[in-house]
Amino acid sequence: MKVCVVGAGPCGLTTIKQLLDEGHEVVCFDKNADIGGLWLRHNGDDEQMKAYDNLHLTISMKLMAYSDHPFSGDRVFYTRKQYFRYLAEYADRFGLRPAIRFGSQVTDVRRDSGGWAVTVRHDGVESQETFDAVAVCSGPFKTPNRAIPEIKGFTGEIVHSSEYRNNKRFQGKKVLIVGLAESGADIVREIGDVADTATLSIRSRAYLLPRVFNSTRTTDHGTIRSHHHEMLRRATDYPFAYESFWGRTTIAEVVFTVVSIIYGIATTALGALRVLTEKMVPGRRPAAPTVNPFGQPAHPPQLDIDTPHTDENWDFIRTWNRKSHPDGSWAQRSIFSKNVSFVPSITSGKVLLNDSGIADADGTTVRFQDGTAAEFDTIVLCTGFSTDEISIGELRVRDGNVRNLYKHFLHPDHQGTVAFIGFVRPFSGGIPICAEMQARYFAQVCSGTLRVPRNIDEVIDREKKWEEHWTALSPRHTESIPSNIVYLDSLAREIGCLVPMWRMILNPKLFIQLWFGPFNQAGYRIVGPHALGRSAVDDLYSELVDNRREMALRMSLLQLMPSHVHPEHMM
């Protein structure tokens, strides 16, 4: 097929790669002068959505990498510049640039007798080209959400987080930050350092997750497949929507569960023996790292960048998280903020927190719902982006809700020829690997080796309801998914790159690493189309495994217990 790809950011790049792997002819249009999307910085980008100066990834590079260009080494948090260099390496390694037409903006997409007529503006001149299929990879970060009626009467400066680059313009000002997300956490911290006064206004709370665990490890090193399945599949009465290793066969699921318990207990015993041996033999235990994943000293311990692991900061996070789930549930049902670097700003008093919400504004005075009021020079909106209309020409997503697409990406009305790739946000995990798996699926559909489900509307409806249940406390974030692991496993099963259950059972080491070990997308390149074979297995086994013993015991015991005891054990 001749396929049009819109956008050459992280999602567009992997889409080009997966389509080329399947032998398709690919033309990508991007309005910028180079690859990278929001990671590309250039003069004159002040009003565009771009990564800000001091950005660090909120998940480690292990999970922000593509499975066909894995990150080697310990899990660390890359900076904005480092991640852009990674994208450039990816594009150059696989020769993606020749497929990209830079400085070209797609202005319209229409059905015609030959497929899809795509209109493109380049150097002020519009032209049209016909394609068999279209992948929209331009992302949801287009239209900043500035529609905050409560601040309509404010006459001071209003800045959206998409315009934020650094804190220089806020020096000595009275600043109100509205809303909090992962980027918002950095903005609160940085503005709090230089403003005359700073206030954070929120109405609801994302679930806070520190990026650093035990002072030397990334928290996402503890992202375990068995934990996600246990939390969303067994410890609830709500029907599980996705398919995993065992499919929908009850017998297969029982066999898998029994084997996981046996292997889990064995792993615990062997792990305990290994720890005992390391204690008895001098020099056997590896030396502890001297720096944390941000490159900062491991001691004193940190929870996040410049965020000391103190009782005060930790208690603040726990209290915040309890308030984020007022129903008292233990399973997270709101979006995560994998960035707690703003916490010291509040506990130290640099930034005031008002969680009552804004009532109204008059001039430079802002009144809050709790009856208090304050004067501000500037309001910074960390209020996300509008998803009311995700469309290009005739390509429209119903209600601007990507849950109305198959697996968040494949349009049900166009026989598999239209995909919106990358419009997904896992509670924890990376968008790039989600986009890669969506693109692998789409490329196979274009090749005819994978068919769109006949009951696609029924599946969309079932999975949409499941996601709405598990994201009920973040109803506006329709791009969110509660687990990247169960989502990716379901895609992998259809693509044919999920390791078969029988192969796992016959290979205990592989079973334990995939089920109890740190999640690593290399597992999707062991088998199936365009597999990397041994190199993928080696990458999977390269991960530190000293937490498998704890997770194996924890998950094995929980699988033996009735679901009503889970809240007590999973907090």
TrEMBL record:
InterPro entries: FAD/NAD-bd_sf, Flavin_mOase, Flavin_mOase-like, FMO-like
Keywords for this protein: FAD, Flavoprotein, NADP, Oxidoreductase
Entry's Gene Ontology molecular function annotations: flavin adenine dinucleotide binding; N,N-dimethylaniline monooxygenase activity; NADP binding
Family matches, as Gene3D superfamilies: FAD/NAD(P)-binding domain
Coiled-coil region: none
Top-level taxon of the source organism: Bacteria
Name under which the protein is recorded: NAD(P)-binding domain-containing protein
Organism this protein belongs to: Gordonia desulfuricans
